Each structure stands twice: as structure tokens, then as C-alpha cells.
Amino acid sequence: MANAADIIESLARAGATVATAESLTGGLVAAALTAIPGASVVVRGGVVAYASDLKQELAGVPADILRRDGPVAASTAGAMAAGVRRRCGATYGVATTGVAGPDPQDGHPPGTLHVAVAGPEGTRIKSVTELRGDRSAIRAAAVQHALDLLAAAVSDARESQRNPGR
Hints:
By secondary structure, the protein is α/β, with parallel strands linked by helices. It is 45% helix and 20% strand. The protein is built from 6 helices and 5 strands.
């Protein structure tokens, strides 16, 4: 399990930056990152976009993705990550969308999560459909999934730089 302090340190060593676009987590990913001393060197900013129109306007999700797939979708998370990366001028964009509950949303049950990280080597997306617990537990688990995916992306990029051609 990745922790925010290690991620901040890895980003700083790499000379990289990060921005967040959050729906399900409502700013908790950005809060986890900015709780670490020195975060201001690597955290560019972020947006909380609960409403679909704000996912489009602030996080840069194309309207056709929202129309076709809806706000709770892997493609939406990927577009949010890429959009916030571009709009904030960050090396990495991290995004979360899903359903924390207690009620289903757009046919998706509570515990549905889509998290994405967009970076120099592309966009990676992870979908989880069975997070357990109450709203708070689901949101906390979503933050951990986002941190884990970001840590993996940063680690893989550093490995690629150390071993080009692998």
C-alpha cells in the first residue's frame, strides 16, 4: 500500500508534479497529498467535480464520453485524469469517480470505483466494483486505490528512465 509521503518524495526526486480531479473522494486525494510537508513542490492543484457539467467544464471530460458512458465510468475517470493533467500543467493527473452510497447512482451500486492516472507514459485505469463498508470506508478505500495507482505510475516511469528500452 502506497503512502502519500513516499509519493511526494518520489515525485520530488523525479522533478514531477501532480494534479487531482475528484468526484467520489471529494478532495480527499488532494488532502492526503497536501498533508505531507513539502507537498507544495509537487502538487499543482485540483478540482472537485461532483456534477457532470463540472466534470466537463473543469476536468476536461469530453461531452460525448459523459453522454455515452455517464459520470461513473472508467472512460470518465481516464478523461478526468488527462484533463486535469493538461489544465493544471502537471506531470501526472489523478482522478476518482464512483459511488460511495448509501444509494445507487445511475444504476451503479455503492462501492463502485474508477480511478485513473494520466502521465507521460499514458493513462492507466483501475475499476473496482465491490468496495465494502459505509460511505466513509468506501471513500477511504478509493483514496488508497488512487495513491496506489499514482505510486505505480511514478515508479514505472522512474524504472523506464533508468532502463530505457525495457
